[in-house]
Amino acid sequence: MALSPILGAILADSYLGSFKVITVSSLVSIVGILALTLTSILDLMRPTPCKHGPSPCEGPSKAQIGILYTSMALSTMGVAGTRFTLATMGADQFTNPKHQRVFLNWHFFTMYAAMLVSMVGIVYIQDNVGWGLGYGLSGAANLIGLVAFVMGSRYYLLLKPQGSPFTGLACVLVAAFRKRKALLSPKTEDYCQEAQPRETKLINTTNSFKFLNHAALVTEGDMNPDGSIKKPWNLCTLQQVEDLKTLIRISPIWSTGILLHTTLAIQMSLVILQALAMDRHLGPQFQISAGTMMVFVTVSTATSLALIDRFLLTFHKITHTSPTLLKRIGIGHVLTISSMALSALVESKRLAAARTHNLTGNSIVPMSVYWMVPQLLVVGVGEAFMFPGQVMFYYQEFPKSIKSTAAAMVAVIIGIAFYLGTATVDLIRKTTRWLPDGINDGRMDNVYWVLTIVGLVNFVYFLVCSWMYKYQNDENKELNSPNS
Questions:
Q1: β-strand 281-282 against 286-287: which pairing, if any?
Q2: Which residues have a Cβ under 8 Å from the Cβ of 292 and sit 6 or more positions away?
Q3: Angle 81-85-89 (CA atoms, 0-180°, nearest 5)?
Q4: Which residues contact residue 305 at a Cβ distance below 8 angstroms, ignoring those fewer than 6 apart?
Q5: Lowest mean pLDDT among 109-123, 240-254, 314-328
Q6: For 48-60, what is each residue's pLDDT tens digit?
Q7: Which among 188, 190, 216, 213 has a CA at the least distance from the CA of 202?
Q8: What percent of the chain clears pLDDT 70, i.e. is strictly above it?
Q9: Quick check: pTM over 0.85?
Q10: What contacts 24+ positions apart, CB below 8 Å, involve 240-243?
Q11: What are residue 205's phi and psi, to 5 degrees?
Q12: Contact (CB, 8 A) for 406 and 86
């Protein structure tokens, strides 16, 4: 599910456009949720309830399992075309980068607020009223959102897809290799330019990754008499060359997000294990579930997003500058590292309580689960700085032809991070005794300290990448100038 948005983004950039991808994906999502609703209310589509007595329960049929998996797959496909493509299309409606940032910030606030309603309200209805009503309300909300989205279609600024930009980027590599022995020219006129109005300034060659300039060097037989490119895989435009260079420059910063989200993925899974072995009572009668602890992260993120927008506005009025997007991402790094250290301290206290009371295995320790709330609140604040900051950075710095793909690159980071997180936990379990089946017998605090160190090393790497990076979008520089 985490990797699926990149597929929808590629389709939006290359062939269908954002509006069509969002509309079709929303319909697919509604069909998936409708199927889930039917599996929970129709006896024909769910297993026979267990009967009292010694006889074993009857499992689901292959057809029932197939319908369930299909409905989940359709719901996931719906997410693929809406989660980041919707954010990109909304930002496309603005030409001022500052307005784009404000929109994206409030877009993600809305997304986290909706997640909070789902995690608390929908889950409560499913547990206490019925799964059918819970899924039905989700489907109704999707349908209302789709109708509202389509009704506003005549007001949207729709960008037409120009075909796959990835073919052009691959062309740069092939053409540069084929012309690797040609001598580069210092004259801009000797390089292929995109067809532009006469008053438009020509793109100059840059010295970084100079080898790629070969791809745009015009040699004999590359051009037709009318000025068009004769052999696309022998000659590319300077714009295509610069687009590929931009992706190469951004890739180190993009890679820093992988380790950052890997530590978060591990932390979120360990938090559930900790909560299961702690006192989760809220009052003498009511006990929250372990998974409910994630609500604190969502509340913190949603609240922080609203406050950050106001803070940045006040900061801009006072200083006439705005923090750069890389600084915003850096703050997210620091807060995430701090949450790991807090997690280690809380786990050390929990283990000490377990040993004091001679508790082993997964026995519940007489320590309130709400000791973990501060670390989860810090995670939420860090996510409010980091997650939208990454989307904004990629959206404004990536080539214009792949804006939707740029925003969805965060989904790729998260997807890779979850796989790495799972592999890391398996490695720790095989090589150490820190994460046994019974966490009271292990040293989960050591895991958190290792994650803290990994986060610090990754942060240093991020600082080096940020220091070396030069913004490609001049409008980003203007946002931080005294006159902006």
A1: antiparallel
A2: 119
A3: 140
A4: 105, 106, 108, 109, 112, 384, 388
A5: 314-328
A6: 777 776 677 777 8
A7: 188
A8: 93
A9: yes
A10: 240/168, 240/169, 240/171, 240/172, 240/215, 240/216, 241/172, 241/176, 241/212, 241/213, 241/215, 241/216, 242/203, 242/206, 243/165, 243/168, 243/169, 243/399, 243/401
A11: -75, 150
A12: no
470: closest CA among 283, 253, 271? 253
Using CA atoms, how far apart are residues 351 and 59, in angstroms rounded to an integer? 40
130, 148, 217, 219 from 181: Cα distances, Å: 70, 57, 11, 12
Query: Mean pLDDT over residues 185-200, rounded?
Result: 73
Distance, in Å, from the CA atom of 195 to the CA atom of 199, rounded to the nearest integer, reads 12
Determine the Cα–Cα distance for residues 268 and 270; give it in Å rounded to an integer: 6
What is the torsion angle, in degrees rounded to the nearest 10, for the CA atoms of residue 397, residue 399, residue 404 and residue 407? -20
* Tokens, residue 103: 């929109």
What whole-number distance in Å separates Cα of residue 130 and Cα of residue 305? Answer: 33
- Whole-angstrom Cα distance, residue 277 to residue 284? 18
Q: How many CB atoms lie within 10 A of CB 156?
A: 14
**DSSP-assigned beta bridge partners for residue 368:** 279
